[in-house]
Amino acid sequence: MDAVTKRFFIGLGIFALAAMVFLGAWQQKAEASVSWGQEVTEVAKLYKGVKYKWGGKTPKQGFDASGFTQFIYDDSAAHIKLPRTTKEQYKAGENVAIKDLQEGDLVFFNTNGKGASFVGIYLEKGNFIAVTVSKGVSIQSMDSKYWKTKYVGAKRVLKQY
Questions:
Q1: In contact, 75 and 86? CB cutoff 8 Å
Q2: Residues 6 or more apart whose Cβ sits within 8 Å of residue 88
Q3: Are strands 94-95 and 151-156 parallel, antiparallel or unpaired?
Q4: Integer angstrom CA distances of residue 11 from 16, 26, 45
Q5: pLDDT tens digit string along 139-153?
Q6: What's the pTM?
C-alpha cells in the first residue's frame, strides 16, 4: 500500500470516528421511563373542558364520571377495559389506602348517599381529574370541603413494575 492510499484510509477512519462521536453513536442514549399512572393522567388532562353528559362516554358527546374513566383507561397506552358504571369500577382492582395513592389510581366518592357513585383519576398531591356537572372535565382537590367528606376509597387497576 502506498503512502497516498494509507493517508486516505487514515483520513477516512478519522472522519468516521469524528462522525460517530458527533452523531452520538458512542454516547449513552437518554431513556425516559413513564409509569402507567403518568400515561393515564396525561391522557386524561388532554380532555380538560369536555362537557358533562349523563350516560356520556366519548369526548364528542361528553362524559359522565364513569364514562370518562372508562374512556381514558382504554384510550391510553394502558388499554385497560374498565366496567361501565362507577359501582362496577369500584369492584375492580386492588384497594389502596389514601396515604398510598399513586398517579392513575381510581378514587371514589359517595355523592348520592348510596355508596360509590362518583369516580375520578388520582393525579398527585391530593388532586384528581374527573368530570363534574358544573365544570366538565376538570382538576379537583380531594381536600376541598365538598370532596373530603364524600371520599369512600381508591382502587389500583394499573400494572405495577
A1: no
A2: 66
A3: antiparallel
A4: 9, 20, 53
A5: 999 999 999 999 999
A6: 0.79
